[in-house]
Amino acid sequence: MLAPLARTALRASRRSLAAPAAARSVSLLAAARPVARAAVPAAAPQQVRGIKHIDFSGDGQIETVYERADWPIERLHEYFKDDTLALLGYGSQGHGQGLNLRDQGLNVIVGVRKGGASWKEAEADGWVAGKNLFDIDEAAQKGTYLMMLMSDAGASEAYPKLMQYMTKGKTVYWSHGFSPVFKDQTGIESPKDCDVILCAPKGSGRTVRTLFKEGRGINSSVAVFQDVTGKALEKAVAMSVAVGSGYTYETTFEKEVYSDLYGERGCLMGGIQGMFKAQYDVLRANGHSPSEAFNETCEEALQSLYPLVGEHGMDYMFKACSTTARRGALDAAPKFEAALKPVFEELYARVKDGSETRRTIEFASQKNYRELFEKETDEVAAQEMWRVGQKVRALRPDRAAKGL
Ligand SMILES: NC(=O)c1ccc[n+]([C@@H]2O[C@H](COP(=O)([O-])OP(=O)(O)OC[C@H]3O[C@@H](n4cnc5c(N)ncnc54)[C@H](OP(=O)(O)O)[C@@H]3O)[C@@H](O)[C@H]2O)c1
Questions:
Q1: Gap between the Cα atoms of 189 and 175, Å rounded
Q2: What range(s) does the KARI C-terminal knotted domain occupy (predicted)?
């Protein structure tokens, strides 16, 4: 029986199939690929239903973006009707992508280490041992798509044993370019008879799930590492829709892994912690109270200003603030840019030369890497700034009313 979401999507797809032929969602992908390379005028992006060719910056570089509108659920069912999608690993992505695939009514199974933390999590999410939950080997044997959703370090360890199941006609699916791109470090050689594809959601697996449930869909990128059948890109796009993407941006494995590792070390995670901490510490050193230092550093940023940037852009946020704030911010921005650029340049170089992946593999190969991570993140939680943050958050009117 189809889950409610799948039924809704099915109804929508029926409506779409009832539309006149010209407006119908057809297999544009294969037909449009050569067009994307040859006939798209640089200055006038062409709009094709389901595929867009967009010059984002206006510099003539045309990028390809796929829409889920081209893959209504009936088409997904038809496309994957003979396939078993085997999720190998059940961390954040396994949870999000797996539940979305299941809700879409596709034939999906989970393969994880028996008795491990993920096995328990999969059971808690309703996967049933012997029915759609197996140990990794059994799932890999049954799967026609081997979805490599274990940790990047875990993949290196598990891969040699899994290679026996990567036989002709099967597809190897990654959500990160890490393992195949840095094969000198990971030891991961792609099986010569398989398509090797990527769909990398641009966010946590938890967000992959919540955006799907809200009927929205996360942005993802897709890429092809090896195309044996000539259909690898089509498969990657179909998979991106199947796991819950809304818009899918075409890239390469190399570009995906470089930008992803760089971004999370920079503005997405490492950079914000570093910038918040530096600003907070200077305020405290100058005699400001903990709550004032936190409010002027984190709370106002996260509650008031960053959401405006996300919704409407940086200029909008600047314009929404006072003359005094705007003057100072516009003057300070280039100083931060100049000070930080060398840090970003070093970061990108370390990603590209493999230093960052080496560090990750070495760290995550330790048996007790989870506890070590826990210790370090506990240390962040114990920093005065975030301890203060906990108390300030509790005073937000919506939380205070709930006694949180
Ligand atoms: N999380 C994100 O935000 C995100 C976003 C986009 C892409 N990705 C990519 O998606 C992939 C999965 O990431 P994730 O965050 O979902 O998971 P993760 O937390 O990195 O990995 C957890 C999974 O790996 C398994 N695992 C670890 N070592 C293993 C080993 N030696 N053999 C077999 N299984 C092993 C764990 O099983 P046990 O419980 O049994 O240890 C668990 O199921 C990665 O390639 C990641 O880079 C992640």
A1: 16
A2: 252-399
